[in-house]
Amino acid sequence: MALVGLFAVALLMVLSGRSWYHQQSLLKNQVVVLVANFENPQDDQWGVTKDIIHQLEEALEEYDNVEVQALNEEITAQEGIKVARAKGKKHHADIVLWGWYQDTDSHAKVTVKFEVLEELHYLPSVQTKPLIQTIAKLESFEIQTQLSEEMSYLTLFTIGLVRYEAKDYEGAIARFTKALEFVLDAEQAIVQNNTIDALYFYRGVAYYYKGEQDKAITDFNQVLKIHPEYAEVYSNRGCAYSEKGELDQAIADYTQALKFYPEYAPAYYNRGIAYSDKGEQDKVIADYTQALKFYPEYAPAYYNRGIAYSDKGEQDKVIADYNQALKINPGFTPAYINRGNAYFDKGESDKAIADFTQALKINSEYALAYNNRGNTYSDKGESDKAIADFTQALKINSEYALAYNNRGNAYSDKGELEKAITDFTQALKIYPEDALAYNNRGVAYSDKR
Fold this sequence. Notes:
By secondary structure, this protein is α/β, with parallel strands linked by helices. The chain has helices at residues 48-59, 80-90, 151-165, 169-180, 186-192, 197-210, 213-226, 231-243, 247-260, 265-277, 281-294, 299-311, 315-328, 333-345, 349-362, 367-379, 383-396, 401-413, 417-430, 435-448, and strands at 11-14, 31-37, 66-74, 95-103, 108-116, 135-138, 140-146. The strands form two sheets. It has a five-stranded mixed β-sheet. Strands 1-6 form a two-stranded parallel sheet.
């Protein structure tokens, strides 16, 4: 019975926040940047807010999926991050800019606070990789600049952030790199303040999503020069090492993250994925269990732990974990598939069929669900229903060798050997190394004598 692979979610963490997020599965049509009033308690001779909005609107003019909105009210330092994020959610913003400035004789020193808002989403489709890691994202951070030509730094950084939120990682990298050029002495900036850590952090995440892991690791290294105990960055660097297949280095980074932040669920989750890739199932289960201790509503951790239990043959624990995953996320179709497989292995065919059917109600184009339900019908001796399901799976995926092989078996059970041989032959055209299909065809030829 075909099993759906482990669920991996790359969690990249964003600066100075302990919350963590799934990568968003669906791109919103609009990226909304909300700008609060930047006011000096003494006066407003510099027109900071208008200048920021004007520069952003001008720079973002070429993008039709970005909207800059004025909040038209202050968010004070006393009100802080909580109020800023609440106002952002109220206005359906993706990014909130707020802060204040102090003026001198020649310029205004502007402190800009960034809030990056994103709702938690579950990935909607089965991943081809066995697991997806979780990539951390910065929630709240600040930069400081002068209200002069250096405002270009703020503008470039914000555009980079906007392009990042729009999943335009190449565009984001270009803007972050350009913004870094405004920092005349990057090494000195690292020593003096943390203004550029967000740039390196976000550029590293963008490189990760582009598949340029060496560059991602280099940028995460830069952040760690500034914040050598930043757990989320170690976890992100571990994800990059994992993508490169350097599992021991990835595990070392996840372990380091947990040294600095023992309750950081994504590091346990990601380390569990790495242990799974190494086949160390007991360690896998231990890490998913720890992740769930700190984040008990994380359905993919239940799902992945269920797969680990399945590999150990502990079907009751498998079913219990899929039950929990589905309680949290009733639309989690891979959990229905794998729970159905567990019921099949226990000989509870009707429950298995019910789960495969439920998966198909959610996703009627799910070829694997048709294949697995067909196998269950075949096991019950209902060959016509089995053939109908395998045929439907092949309408969805005409290169599905396993479905040809399984339909061939169903035809063979009905005594329709020519059709069985035709299906086994088609399976071998798609997958010439399929020993089982050769065996099945040989049996069919023998039965024809």
